[in-house]
Amino acid sequence: MMMNSYKILFCPFYCFLVLLLSGQTGMQAEARHLNHHLLTKLFAFGDSYADTGNTRKGEGGSWIEPYGITFPGKPAGRWSDGRVLTDYIAKYLRLKSPIPYRLRKKMASHIKYGMNFAFGGTGVFNTSSSYPNMTIQIDFLEQLIKQKVYTASDLSNSVTLVAVSGNDYNFYLATNGSIQDFPSFITSVVNQITTNLIRIQKLGVKKIIVDGLQPLGCLPQTTVSSSFQQCNSTFNNLVLFHNDLLNQSVTKLNQENNNSIQILDLYDSFMSVLNDSLTHNIQNSLKPCCFGVSSDYNCGSVVSNEKKYELCDKPKSAFFWDGFHPTQAGWHAVYSKLKATNVLHRLLWAEGFV
C-alpha cells in the first residue's frame, strides 16, 4: 500500500503455521525433514501484507524513514517497522524470505528460494495503485516458467502464499460504491480469488495458503474516529461475510484437490491478540506506533525538512505500525497465536504432497 494513497487504499478489509503441539516430538522431526528436503521455494502474491520490496524507491511509503527501523534497521520496502507476513511463513518453512520480483535480476542467486510477486496497494482487481493486480502477478510467474527459470519440480515442491488484505474494498468505498451493493461486490472479489487459486494450482503448485481478511474495523485508519478505543462492527461484519464465502469456496476446491489449500485465519488471530494484548507484551493494541500529526499527514510524512508524524518510543509494545499495518511485534504475536491452529502442518501432510 502506498502511503500517499492512504485515503484511497485499504491495504490491509474483510494460522499460522505450525510446529506440532508439544509432546509430538517424532512427528515434529519428520515435518522438519519434509521441510528441509522437499519444500524448496516460497512464492507470494498479494499486497502490502506480503510485499517485501516490490514498490519502487523514490515514491515514499515503505522506502522512507521510519519504515524498517526495527528490521533491517532502515527502509527496505516492507510496510512495517520490520518483518511482515511473508517473512514469518518463510521462517516456519525454514526458507529464506523470497526475493521481490523487482529485484530478480540484481539478486539472481536468491531465485532458488522462490519469489515474491506482491505489490503494496494492489488487489485482485485494479485499485488506485498503478502496480500490477494479482492476475498480472500470476502472469509474471507464468512467464518465468515459460522462460524455464522455474521447473515443474520447483513448483511441485513449493508453497504459495496468496495475501488479499482489503484494497479492493477500500477502493470500492472510495469510488462511491454503495453499502447496499457491498455484499454483491464481496462475492465478486471472492470469486476472483477462487479463480486465482485454481490458476495457481494449474501452474503446478500443490500447496497454497490464502489469508482470510483481518478485522478491517480494527485498523487504526478506522478506529481513529473513536480515538483508537473501539473497532467498527459494521466493517468487521462485512469481513466475516467475505471470510465465510472464502471458506465455502476453499472447502469445495479442497474436495476436488486433496486439501491442497489452507486458510490463514487472520481475523481470529488478530482479534485474539488485540483482546489479550498484554499477554503478548503489547501495550498499545489499537493506537498505531507511527502516525501523522493530523489527518493531512501519514507515517513518514516530511514537509520542508520538518517531520509531520509522531513515532512511539517502543515499536515492540505496539500492535499496529501505521494506519493499516502491524508492527513486527504485532506480526510476531499473530504468528505465535496461529501456531496452535496447525494450519501449515495440515497443508504439509495433506494427501498429494509429493
UniProtKB/TrEMBL annotation:
Family: Belongs to the 'GDSL' lipolytic enzyme family.
PANTHER family assigned to the protein according to its UniProt record, in alphabetical order: GDSL-LIKE LIPASE_ACYLHYDROLASE (PTHR46020:SF30), OSJNBB0059K02.9 PROTEIN (PTHR46020)
Keyword Phosphoprotein: no
Keyword set, alphabetical order: Hydrolase, Lipid degradation, Lipid metabolism
Pfam family, one: Lipase_GDSL
Protein name, UniProt field: Putative sinapine esterase
Coiled-coil ranges from the UniProt annotation: none
GO MF annotations in UniProt: hydrolase activity, acting on ester bonds
Organismal lineage: Eukaryota, Viridiplantae, Streptophyta, Embryophyta, Tracheophyta
InterPro entries: GDSL, SGNH_hydro_sf
GO biological process: lipid catabolic process
The organism's place on the tree of life at top rank: Eukaryota
